[in-house]
Amino acid sequence: MGVADIFYYTLHFRELKSIIQWKTWHNPVHQRDPEKETVSLRICFDLLDKTSRSFSAVIQELHPELLVPIALFYLILRGLDTIEDDMTIPLEKKEPLLKEFYKITEKEGWSFSGNGPDERDRELLVQFHYVTEEYRKIKPVYREIINDVADQMGNGMAEYCRRCAEGRSGVESVKDYDMYCYYVAGLVGNGLTRLFVESGLANPALKERKQLQTSMGLFLQKTNIIRDVKEDWDDKRRFWPREIWSKYVDDFGDLFKPEKEEVALNCSSEMVLNSLNHADECLFYLAGLREQSVFNFAAIPQAMAIATLALVFRNPQIYKKNIKITKGEACQIMLDSTQNLQKVCEVFRKFVRQIHRRNTPKDPNFLKISVACGKVEQFIESIFPTQDPGALQRAAETGMPVAKEEDPKVVQEREEAKWDTIYMMIAVMGTITVISIIMLGVAFMMGARWDVAINELKKGSLNRPGPDSAKTIVQKYDRGEL
Fold it and tell me: What's the whole-model pTM score?
């Protein structure tokens, strides 16, 4: 942790508290045991850590039945994504690789070293033979699901790459946008659902609700596309559909011009609206997960996505740099998202209300965004009502207004959080005081001249001294002992 981080968390005690709570109090539902794994499987988990530490952490806490299949599922799809993203691979080589990748997973000893030297996940494909070795060991029913998803995804990616190579924009309409997001993320939601149900850790009814499965992936992908707009534009890629951005500017690059800030914010708000329309279906999906580790695995990314959506909403910084929620906020979200559905709903309600507060009548999407926010709140209210039905009935009979009573548990948690913050502030200030005393003590032992420092401070000499100042001070305070 650097000096800037120390200063930041000194001013944001709640975030520091969340980090400490997550690090010290979080107990995984299941723990992976590397001692019982083969060498090749341990290498697979090392590759998982390198490709995504956040996803790796939640995957490694999964139920033992799904731990290895989902880890390999992620690595296989990440391998596909690495080939698609690499602009140094020519289309005539890339297209067959993408289309045949689902067959490659069954080939013993297959690896690929044709990525450009700067490709971030190049090492995964170089060592892909370890993935294929472990993949052949999992249950055939799991392999069938993963192969099916990899087949569909590879063909979808190949089609998108061909369109770009032929000079056609990959994402023209909102329909194209939905289709692209479906191929790169919606299919992941479909595949994971089939794995969850096949393992007996989710409600079988989820398998029939394709729209819910797809929304889980689309909500994440669309939120990331909004957040990464500047990074993608710098890489000469554009995923925002022309059907949306052409309403606001003639050329996509105009969105990044300072003089176009207001129309750029209106454009991004329509993109947020498009993503927000999936939020209530994500909560509906989470209600069908039976096992805690599977629930955590699915809920954490969704909660992070709604927080990110609130962060990017009408935020001009997205056109200047890649922005992310802070580590402290992320830890608090993970703490809330690894408990139950009601807590996750509270996270969604919190960030949806942030979006609603920042919504402005000047935005042409104002009304639609308000309705979308209300739709999420209405869904949450339908499963976790904030009013006591008995109190509502009594109010109807007596004609008296309902007095909203706070849940005693919520009041207690708020009181505990207040005192936790106070204790944290005392601990931080105490630590800073002790460190300061130690530093002053060391300086005294080293012969620091406090009289010089005090006299200079009395004169108001707070600026950095010039090159000749040291000689002047020495001559002034020299007592001739030497």
Answer: 0.78
